[in-house]
Amino acid sequence: MPSISAHERYVTTSAGELYVKIWEPVTASDAATTSPIVLFHDSLGSVELWRDFPEQLALSVDRQIIAYDRPGFGRSYPRTDVLEADFIINEATGPFTAIRNELGIEDFIALGHSVGGAMAAVCAATFPDDCVALITEAAQAFVEDRTVQGIRNAGQVFAEEGQLDRLKKYHGAKADWVLRAWTDTWLSEDFQHWTMNETLARVTCPVLAIHGEDDEYGSEAHPERYTSLPAGPCVMELLRECGHVPHREKPEVVTGVIREFITRYTAV
């Protein structure tokens, strides 16, 4: 019966330490020599908020899964500054590169949820010779009216007494910064013209875009861009009766779709 071993570590950068967790299949296969899947979390996310998805994915695809907390999130070092407007672009050459260098990651599969999907796409475009495949889940490609309204609604919920404690469970004292980094950035006037068009046009690897039909933060126009602009083979999976977190709402479907895509479109 296949099993998974998991271990944690910190990667030191000039700004502070980044928390990383790695799930590894304990099998006699060649999983250790295949490209790992690197997970990029969403705007309120963390390694812990992936819950059991990394372990289930590792079992499903029989390869290493790596997740990390971005600066200011989870167990990584705190931030008190204003999130930079180009934070999505900066992820590839900033935290991701630091982790990649420390862990010796060469070829990789980038998998991101929500804004993490945009970051994964930036990594695919920045390292075209090394990114074997790009997988996005509920990823935004531009700022849509539905996106803005969804964030406003969420902000009102978190403003209610006790609601911020939900974030403190995963981010501790950093919870208020995490919430403001999300709402203040995405609702700012300067961010309303942001798009992924230029980045996606530079993606050359195979792309899988998973999206829930009932996603409260974005219509199917987003996965359509993720699968129409890149140069390589692209697959779009629209999941019925599914919202913004497919890996939590339909975990078996998501892992199955990812396994089928990787088997068909990757050789390493």
UniProtKB/TrEMBL annotation:
The lineage of its organism: Bacteria, Pseudomonadati, Pseudomonadota, Gammaproteobacteria, Pseudomonadales. Residues 36-248 form the AB hydrolase-1 domain. It comes from the Bacteria. GO terms for molecular function: hydrolase activity. PANTHER family: HYDROLASE, PUTATIVE (AFU_ORTHOLOGUE AFUA_2G14860)-RELATED, MONOACYLGLYCEROL LIPASE. Keywords: Hydrolase. It comes from Marinobacter aromaticivorans. This is Alpha/beta fold hydrolase.
